[in-house]
């Protein structure tokens, strides 16, 4: 990990540091556009071909049904079931509170406005399964989709070497009451859910994280089809802000946790002393070699860095520019700086709050904006699966109260038919 001194960095250098791997030569875009075209033209056959090409699996059919999922789910241990169920319950508890009915507002006597929630009818969930299979992501997407009341939930996940999904994904499907999983991964899964194929329904909105191929496909279909997306949720990243009250062993563990996701993940430490920086590097050197995914984590760390700042305020200033997916405040003084956070996907406060808790089981959602999209996007929640439709009702009294204002405004815009739609009712 390279080490920088914040006070020596120019604005342009800071701009470079906060930039993520965004396919500068459009190589990923070119691959993904070809995949999308192919799926659009050849439907299920293209999906079977891509399972062979990218996942090295020969499929005879594109999905697993309920009996097959039940069979797979039988193989998991009681301890594993309990962990998935505990995570399910906490995520459910936290997300359940997001379903709130809003008040009706009488803006003028006789003029009432309000919003009502309706679920998005058809949603597609993408559950990553390339480098690591993520049943936790299935919980993070499936629970809010169920709470929202979405009518059709299409689920795609890459086929594993067995030609199936793994047993944990199958168990989560049963917890969520989902009867079918399509064995489709990568950008081809996104294309299939955006355009529909012989066996996969075209959905209204696609959710879920994924690698650069998945994320690129989501951003392309968002601008070329009528299917919406949750957000660009690409390779995982974490930014840790630390001061002298932090524990370098914990910081190292948190940096490594996101680094092990993939070679394109990024882990950034912004700390207020060179001593902490060096102690953290020493801890990484200790903890890294014993990790089964050490090689992946090392490559991600090669693409990561440490910045030393004079104080926590400067650290926060950098973090807000970076807009991390995960922000950890590794300091006992977190309450002094947490109100200065402007851009972050999800925040972890203090030295005893591991980011992994949010990844799996504390209750918050782990599907979060990456690549600085936390400047404008929130993570997935029940809100992501619903529309809030505005309603209004005007009585005769209301028409008298608001009518003239609308007539004058319509006149100002030269839109006489608009004015008339009010006048005709008043007379
Ligand atoms: N931001 C978030 O909220 C969040 C949450 C969880 C995971 N993640 C990230 O999701 C990612 C998961 O990535 P993954 O690769 O393990 O699984 P994935 O399921 O996203 O991708 C696997 C698929 O990628 C496709 N693929 C692989 N190589 C390809 C190539 N050369 N050309 C075209 N397609 C190809 C294949 O179809 C394969 O099935 C990680 O980067 C992880 O950090 C992000
Ligand atoms: N850290 C990931 C989000 O970037 C979520 C995850 C799933 N499993 C483990 N971690
Ligand atoms: Zn993680």
UniProtKB/TrEMBL annotation:
Its EC number(s): 1.1.1.23
Pathway: Amino-acid biosynthesis; L-histidine biosynthesis; L-histidine from 5-phospho-alpha-D-ribose 1-diphosphate: step 9/9
Keywords, alphabetical: Amino-acid biosynthesis, Histidine biosynthesis, Metal-binding, NAD, Oxidoreductase, Zinc
Gene: hisD
Active site: 325 (proton acceptor), 326 (proton acceptor)
InterPro entries: Ald_DH/histidinol_DH, Histidinol_DH_CS, Histidinol_DH_monofunct, Hstdl_DH
Class of this enzyme: oxidoreductase
Catalytically driven reaction(s): L-histidinol + 2 NAD(+) + H2O = L-histidine + 2 NADH + 3 H(+)
Positions contributing to NAD(+) binding: 126, 188, 211
Entry note: cofactor: Binds 1 zinc ion per subunit.
Cofactor(s) named in the record: Zn(2+)
Binding, substrate: 236, 258, 261, 326, 359, 413, 418
Protein name: Histidinol dehydrogenase
Record's function text: Catalyzes the sequential NAD-dependent oxidations of L-histidinol to L-histidinaldehyde and then to L-histidine.
GO terms of biological process kind: L-histidine biosynthetic process
One Gene Ontology CC term in the entry: cytosol
Family: Belongs to the histidinol dehydrogenase family.
Residues that bind Zn(2+): 258, 261, 359, 418
Species of origin: Mucilaginibacter pineti
Taxonomy, superkingdom: Bacteria
Stored Gene3D superfamilies: 1.20.5.1300, Nitrogenase molybdenum iron protein domain (3.40.50.1980)
Any one Gene Ontology molecular-function term assigned to this protein's record: zinc ion binding
């Amino acid at each position: 990990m390279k080490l920088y001194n914040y006070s020596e960095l120019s604005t342009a250098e800071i701009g470079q540091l906060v930039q993520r791997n965004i396919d500068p030569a459009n190589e990923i875009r070119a691959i993904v556009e070809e995949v999308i075209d192919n799926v659009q033209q050849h439907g299920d056959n293209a999906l079977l071909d891509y399972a062979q090409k990218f996942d090295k699996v020969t499929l005879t059919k594109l999905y697993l049904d309920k009996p097959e999922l039940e069979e797979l789910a039988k193989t998991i241990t009681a301890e594993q079931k309990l962990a998935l169920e505990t995570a399910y319950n906490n995520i459910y508890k936290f997300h359940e509170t997001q379903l709130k009915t809003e008040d009706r507002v009488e803006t003028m006597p006789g003029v009432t406005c309000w919003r009502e929630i309706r679920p998005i009818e058809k949603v597609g969930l993408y559950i990553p399964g390339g480098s690591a299979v993520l049943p936790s992501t299935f919980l993070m997407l499936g629970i809010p989709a169920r709470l929202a009341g979405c009518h059709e939930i299409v689920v795609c996940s890459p086929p594993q070497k067995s030609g199936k999904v793994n047993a944990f994904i199958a168990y989560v499907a049963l917890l969520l009451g989902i009867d079918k999983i399509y064995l489709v991964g990568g950008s081809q899964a996104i294309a299939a859910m955006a355009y529909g194929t012989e066996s996969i329904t075209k959905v209204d909105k696609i959710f879920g994280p994924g690698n650069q191929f998945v994320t690129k496909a989501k951003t392309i279909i968002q601008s070329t089809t009528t299917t919406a997306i949750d957000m660009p949720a690409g390779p995982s990243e974490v930014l840790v802000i630390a001061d002298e009250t932090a524990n370098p062993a914990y910081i190292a563990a948190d940096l490594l946790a996101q680094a092990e996701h993939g070679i394109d993940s990024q882990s950034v430490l912004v700390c207020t002393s060179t001593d902490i920086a060096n102690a953290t590097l020493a801890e990484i050197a200790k903890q890294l070699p014993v990790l089964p995914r050490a090689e992946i984590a090392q490559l991600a760390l090669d693409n990561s860095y440490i910045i030393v700042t004079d104080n926590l305020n400067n650290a926060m200033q950098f973090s807000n520019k970076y807009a991390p997916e995960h922000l950890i405040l590794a300091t006992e003084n977190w309450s002094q700086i947490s109100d200065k956070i402007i851009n972050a996907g999800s925040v972890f406060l203090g030295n005893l709050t591991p980011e992994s808790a949010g990844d799996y089981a504390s209750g918050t959602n782990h599907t979060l904006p990456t690549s600085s999209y936390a400047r404008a996007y929130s993570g997935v929640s029940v809100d992501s699966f619903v529309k809030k439709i505005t309603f209004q009702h005007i009585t005769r009294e209301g028409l008298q109260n608001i009518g003239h204002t609308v007539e004058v405004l319509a006149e100002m815009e030269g839109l006489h038919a608009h004015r008339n739609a009010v006048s005709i009712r008043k007379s």
